[in-house]
Every structure is written in C-alpha cells, then in structure tokens.
Design a protein that fits this description.
- The protein is mainly α.
- Helices cover about 75% and strands about 0% of the residues.
- It is built from eight helices and no strands.
- The protein has helices at about 1-10, 20-25, 30-35, 40-60, 65-90, 95-120, 120-130, 130-155.
- Helix 4 (about 40-60) packs antiparallel against helix 5 (about 65-90).
- The protein is extended.
- The protein starts with a helix and ends in a 9-residue tail after the last helix.
- The model is unreliable at about 20-25 (pLDDT under 50).
Amino acid sequence: MMLRKYLENRIRGWFPKEPNLPSNKVKMADAKTKVPKPDWWKPLWIVTLLLTIASGFIIYFLLNVSLERTVSAVALTFFCIGIAYYIRVRPSLKVNRAIYILLGISPIGFGLWILYALSGIGMFITTHFGTWVSLIIGFTVPYAIGAFIGDWIGKRRNYQLPLSP
C-alpha cells in the first residue's frame, strides 16, 4: 500500500491530476507576472557561469586537456546553461511545447524503437521490402509516435512543466 502511494506521488508530477486540468491551471502569462523570483535566483546563474569558467581553467591547466577541447566543452556548457535559463526564467507556450515533444521523442520514441528492433518486425520488413524501407520505418515511425505522445501529455498538462511557477 505504501509503495503504491509512493509511486503515485512520484508519477503525479508528470501526469494531470484531474481530467479538466487545462481550465484549472494558471495561464503562462499569469505565471510570469504573479510569481516573484526568489532572492537567490540571480546569484545562482552568476555563480553557475563563474564555476563553468573556473572549471575550464582547471581542465586546461591542471588536467592538460587540449585548448580546443576545453573551449568546446565550456562553450557547450554555456549553451546548455542558456537553454536552462531561458526555460526557467522566460517560460513560453512554444518552448514548453517543444520540450514536451522532445521529451516524448527521447524516452518514448527510443523505447518504441527498441520494441521495433527486438520484436522481429524490423527483420520481417527487411526481408520482404528491403533494407532502406526498414531503416526509414525504423528511424521515423517510433520517434514520430513518441513526439505525438509527448505533445499529447503536454496538452493534457496545458504545457506546464513540472515544478514551474
């Protein structure tokens, strides 16, 4: 009984609590204006950027990694920090929808691709229709279905990300 309650509480963050959730949720424009940012919000992003730069120096000087690899790693980290900042500080319906679609493609689409590969359907299609048809179907259909499922979950949640204001 306790395990069931624990699992239910863990999953609740991703799935809607009621069937009429979109009418009960706060709209994106209201969420931007009503929720004040905490005092630690701005220093968090500044410290994150400074720690990234410091780790770049440590990697280059102490671990003797090449300059190209260090700069590319720091640039990629800055890019990811920028995406995280944009998602958390400036939420929008389009970005949240894209995140739900990408989250549908990643685990759901990959899981469907694994099922496609292990079930023998891929071998059947390869035998009867050829390798290229099997590759095209194998790399488009599962991920497209995952994207639709991710969009459907997002639509059910009114494209509100978990733990968002």
